[in-house]
Amino acid sequence: MKDKYKDLFSPYTFPNGVTLKNRIVIAPMTHWSSNPDGSVSEVELKYYARRSSGVSAVITACAYVLPNGKAFHGQFAADRDEMIPGLRKVVKTIQEQGAKAILQIHHGGRLCPPELVPNGEIVSASAVPAEKPGMKTPRALTENEIKELVEAFGEATRRAIEAGFDGVEIHGANGYLIHQFFSPHSNRRTDRYGGTLEKRMTLPLEIIDQVKSVVAKYAKSPFIVGYRFSPEEPETPGITMADTIAFVDVLAGKGLDYLHVSLHDFRSTPRVGVKDLTKTRIEYLLETINGRVPLIGVGSIITADDAKEALDTGISLVAIGREMIVDPDWMQKIEEGRENEIATCIYTDQQEELVIPDGLWDQILNRPGWFPVKER
Ligand SMILES: Cc1cc2nc3c(=O)[nH]c(=O)nc-3n(C[C@H](O)[C@H](O)[C@H](O)COP(=O)(O)O)c2cc1C
User: Which among 26, 59, 60, 308 is least buried, having the fewest CB atoms inside 10 angstroms?
Assistant: First the structure.
């Protein structure tokens, strides 16, 4: 390994005492390949096995916590105890490769396709559809249903503990239900869950409290709890960087093991809401957090130099998504001083070689601009 990359390989200990062997984790990525009933499939195990050695932790694809939260065909489930044996296989597959396994827990809210949820009924904070063509208007959850939702995140956490996961990541990002409660676009409520910036934080904070209380009750050894968020959204009204700074200030005091900002590019700058639009979002977040909780950064980290540049900003861990699909040996190549051999595109004949499940492969080929795909 070149000396300049040695920091990427330094261990990291979370506030709860769990140590990761290095600073690179796999970002959560849906793979559209679990069984239709939400149980874990053999192909997804092979996909995880191929890319879990080298990195220090794998944050899994998001798993739905309630049947009406399923947002993807082939999404896996953490909504009932029958799923635990399959979840256990995911844990074993990842841990056998020497990485920690973190289950991302999720509810899709108004972004769920009607055909995937009971009676086609989509739910959200308020009856406001997402601003995309063809999106259905969701039904606003009642206060009782919100209570059940909070409990469902706790139950999914209990299942993760029983399955042997090292932690959970609460998916509060990318426009899904928790994000919908924080967003002034999708949350127009006037009860204790909406109306002001502080009230829009209520649901995410209740979920964090519930998850932490389940961990305190069931986990026999230190268990990681992380929270993922998106710093801004393009809609008006929408989450601004100023909203996120206020939120992160509160999150940093919640005793979480990490915060994980969801970004397409880790160097990106805020759209609106702060004075200096040239400072990066990561810089704003680190300044707000001020050392109170570890931050994971992500987004378009392709080369070893990108990863070093990201870590040098002061974040604790670097998450890598698409690049780990493009080159499952990314970490080993840097470790062996072969970083110039890292692949930066996928050839259309590489599905089998890269162990990519059919559902994910379809997405890679059919969503232009998402992955760097080339024909030989
Ligand atoms: C195929 C794919 C699936 C994804 N699924 C999830 C997901 O389940 N949960 C999540 O929080 N983010 C998801 N993301 C976002 C990634 O975690 C990551 O933030 C994003 O891809 C940017 O990082 P990258 O440039 O390293 O890919 C997904 C991204 C991709 C490419």
Answer: 308
